[in-house]
Amino acid sequence: MKYQTPTGMRDLLEDDLELFDKILKNAQKIADFYRFKKIETPILENSEIFEKGTGAFTDIVEKEMFSLTTKGGDRLTLRPELTPPIVRAYIENGMQALPKPVNLWYAGPCFRHERPQSGRFRQFYQLGFETFGAVEPVIDALIILTCYAVLKSLGLKNLVVQVNSIGCSSCRPYFKKTLTSHLKKSLSSLCANCKGRLKKNPLRILDCKEEKCERIKKSCPQILDHLCKNCHDHFKALLEFLEPAGIPFSLNPYLVRGLDYYTKTVFEIVQESGKSQGSLAGGGRYDDLVKLLGGKPTPACGAAIGLDRVVLLLKGSQEKKEKQERADVFLAQVGDLAKQKSLILLESFRQAGIDLAQTISKDSLSSQLRTASKLEAQFSLIFGHQEALKDQIIVREMSSGRQKTIALAKAVQEIKKRLK
RNA sequence: GCGGCUAUAGUGUAGCGGUAACACUGUUCCCUGUGGAGGAGCCAUCGCCGGUUCGAAUCCGACUAGCCGCCCCA
């Protein structure tokens, strides 16, 4: 095969698209209920918003972005995630003046240059919720609840929210120092990757899955013990909202996430049991990002759901039903004159709201009727040269084979009556 | 970026050194204006390039892609 989709990118055919549509529909309802407004942003953005927003030392920015330079010299990047673009849009469209909180939701493709595997593509689809202008921990709970509700509405089982707090700009630097000095003691036992992380982003070491590092992690100071009072109270309050909301959650002190902008709450939703394919959704609070990207200091919180992964799970759970394509009525035509008059006839049925199928490019009557059978049409309209000359048409009841000739002008009316 | 496995019609498979087979789908015909059944035909330069060989879908090597792990995340 000469041409195929680029690595990690695929065509979405009807089977997939139906599931995507279903998720989107459910999300739309839930978003409406919780008063989120939909937003769409460009697929290309100025590279800087990711370098600053997502973070220069994140894997995403260091090695996973599809970037290009325009003829005019602008550096653009295919969005690897949507939070920084949404923040950009929030500022650019003057939403800072809107009554708070401002709730936005979105769905669309993102791009990351990674090695594809199960549930991971270079072009993948995210659906997310963002809320601006509220510091209250109940908002964090609401964002989690909203994501959880979307996943739940699709019938997914065994969902668990893993939560953690990674502190804020006033307490995290201290923790980083504490952690770094602790880790320096066992520097030689860290994996190569983490040795590098020690300077750039020591928190990420907590997230390392290498066995070596796993062992060291156990003896590490935990961030939850080093939060400032504000962060501590925020986290405690969040948990007190989740509990009665009936959302199953577990504390994961090692959850730090790979994006730089998070403050306080971070969370991921995973499906327990069954094959793990990474998280289904993830998000958190990002109180400093709006300011970082040039807006007024604005607290914010958001999350995104990985649609591809959800679709994968939905596909696995539903048994394949070969859905038969069907039609109520089928038009079979024979001869040039009949074919010429067929288009206007089709239009009159379409306008009357009657499902009239055809294979108008075909000439053979038998093959057309074979198709009519396959479509399980109740009636076929047979429009031959003789009928076309006299402006008549044959109505054939497929089950019995009884047929009668009627005036062409009465075809719509006749079929309407018979279908009842 | 690093590993493991794989690559034959649209789909699912067989073939394991002597120039492609089966099922389903599609399509044409048997039936120059009447379907559901039946029958016949057609639809593949065996992922790409190179090597070994008298001969390669089959063996070997590189490439490309896919799947699955790692990493990371959604």
UniProtKB/TrEMBL annotation:
Subcellular location per the Swiss-Prot or TrEMBL entry: Cytoplasm
Example GO biological process: histidyl-tRNA aminoacylation
Signal sequence interval, chain numbering: none
Pfam family of the protein (one): tRNA-synt_His
GO MF terms held by the record: ATP binding; histidine-tRNA ligase activity
EC number: 6.1.1.21
EC primary class: ligase
Catalytic activity: tRNA(His) + L-histidine + ATP = L-histidyl-tRNA(His) + AMP + diphosphate + H(+)
Keyword DNA-binding in annotation: no
Domain of life, source organism: Bacteria
Residues covered by the Aminoacyl-transfer RNA synthetases class-II family profile domain: 8-314
One cellular component (GO) term of this entry: cytoplasm
Keywords: Aminoacyl-tRNA synthetase, ATP-binding, Cytoplasm, Ligase, Nucleotide-binding, Protein biosynthesis
Binding site for L-histidine: 81-83, 112, 126, 130, 257, 261-262
Family the entry assigns: Belongs to the class-II aminoacyl-tRNA synthetase family.
Subunit (UniProt): Homodimer.
PANTHER family on file: HISTIDINE--TRNA LIGASE, MITOCHONDRIAL-RELATED (PTHR43707:SF1), HISTIDYL-TRNA SYNTHETASE (PTHR43707)
Official protein name in the record: Histidine--tRNA ligase
Gene field: hisS
